């Protein structure tokens, strides 16, 4: 957590309310899917975003509620299931789901991504993680589905789904991958994909929703980065309506800065 202070200062600059900040134009409505105790949701609320946060555990939601009240922050919290998000279509500019959606089978991941796609505005951004097949735990435990294993025998033990590059590309049909990296976590041998994606837009509106089908072709694990932030994301035309589409340069730049500047707090 040594870089947390510097990371928060960078995030503050990215999300500041000045003329170039996302608080002034761009992303306004944020969903923290699987918020836990509210670490990320509280950070967004501190920077002026309208934040919805959901989780399956009441204890974490209660803690986040108390913390928001103590800090004088507005935060909407509710207990909900990632497989059926309780929000209308095209509700959010940005969805964050850190270390959440890979808890299940390939089909579970596909359903969750389809729900995320549904609630994002055209051109909205998704940021999250998936387990990599490079992870030392891949293949360990009881197999319950392709590339999916349960570790441990406790009743609450849940499946973990692992992806290679081809599997991720298939799961994220309907999104444009802006940044995709494999990164080792604090625990040696623990490898996650870090993903920043935009809901794909074609000439008539949004492209089709994700199909939720993963491939199984193994890829070279050393190929950790396939793309940086796209030029389209950084040079998107400025818009002022802010209601139907999240496509402003400040929106994309702010979230990409968060992606790069908060590795120690998004663990």
As an assembly, this protein is single chain
Give the biggest sheet. Answer: 11 strands, mixed
Per the CATH scheme, the topology name of the domain at 87-147 and 158-201 and 247-267 is Rossmann fold
CATH architecture grouping of the domain at 87-147 and 158-201 and 247-267: 3-Layer(aba) Sandwich
N-to-C series of helices and strands: HEHEHEEHEEEEHEEEEEHH
What general form does the structure show? Answer: globular
- Indicate the low-confidence ranges by residue numbers: 1-25, 212-245, 263-267
Computed structural class: alpha/beta
- How big is the Rg? 18 Å
Number of strands: 13
Round the mean pLDDT to the nearest integer and report it. Answer: 75
Q: Helical stretch count?
A: 7
* Highest CATH level, the class of the domain at 87-147 and 158-201 and 247-267: Alpha Beta
Percentage of residues in DSSP E strands: 25-35%
CATH H-tier superfamily of the domain at 87-147 and 158-201 and 247-267: Vaccinia Virus protein VP39
> What is the terminal separation in angstroms?
9 Å
**How helix-rich are the residues, as a percent range?**
25-40%
Provide structural commentary.
The chain is an alpha/beta fold. Among the domains are: 28-80, Vaccinia Virus protein VP39 (Rossmann fold, 3-Layer(aba) Sandwich); 87-147 and 158-201 and 247-267, Rossmann fold (3-Layer(aba) Sandwich). The chain is 27% helix and 27% strand. The protein is built from 7 helices and 13 strands. Strands 1, 2, 3, 4, 5, 6, 7, 8, 9, 10 and 13 form an 11-stranded mixed beta sheet that branches. Strands 11-12 form a two-stranded antiparallel sheet. A hairpin with a 2-residue loop joins β6 (142-145) and β7. The protein is globular and about 45 Å long. The protein starts with a helix and ends in a 6-residue tail after the last helix.
């Amino acid at each position: 957590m040594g870089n947390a202070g510097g990371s928060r200062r960078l995030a503050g600059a990215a999300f500041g309310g000045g003329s170039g900040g996302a608080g002034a134009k761009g992303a306004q409505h944020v969903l923290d899917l699987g918020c836990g105790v509210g670490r990320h949701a509280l950070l967004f609320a501190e920077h002026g975003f309208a934040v919805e946060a959901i989780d399956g555990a009441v204890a974490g939601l209660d803690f986040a509620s108390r913390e928001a009240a103590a800090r004088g922050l507005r935060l909407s919290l509710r207990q909900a299931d990632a497989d059926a998000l309780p929000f209308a279509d095209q509700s959010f500019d940005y969805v964050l789901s850190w270390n959440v959606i890979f808890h299940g089978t390939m089909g579970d991941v596909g359903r969750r991504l389809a729900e995320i796609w549904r609630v994002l505005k055209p051109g909205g951004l998704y940021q999250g993680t998936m387990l990599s097949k490079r992870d030392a735990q891949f293949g360990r435990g009881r197999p319950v589905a392709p590339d999916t294993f349960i570790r441990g025998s406790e009743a609450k033990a849940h499946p973990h789904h692992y992806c290679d590059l081809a599997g991720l590309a298939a799961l994220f049909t309907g999104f444009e991958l802006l940044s995709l990296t494999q990164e080792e976590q604090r625990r040696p041998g623990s490898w996650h994909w870090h993903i920043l994606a935009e809901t794909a837009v074609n000439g008539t509106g949004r492209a089709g929703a994700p199909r939720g089908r993963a491939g199984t072709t193994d890829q070279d694990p050393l190929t950790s980065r396939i793309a940086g932030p796209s030029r389209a994301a950084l040079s998107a035309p400025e818009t002022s309506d802010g209601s139907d589409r999240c496509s402003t340069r400040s929106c994309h730049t702010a979230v990409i800065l968060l992606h790069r500047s908060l590795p120690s707090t998004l663990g």
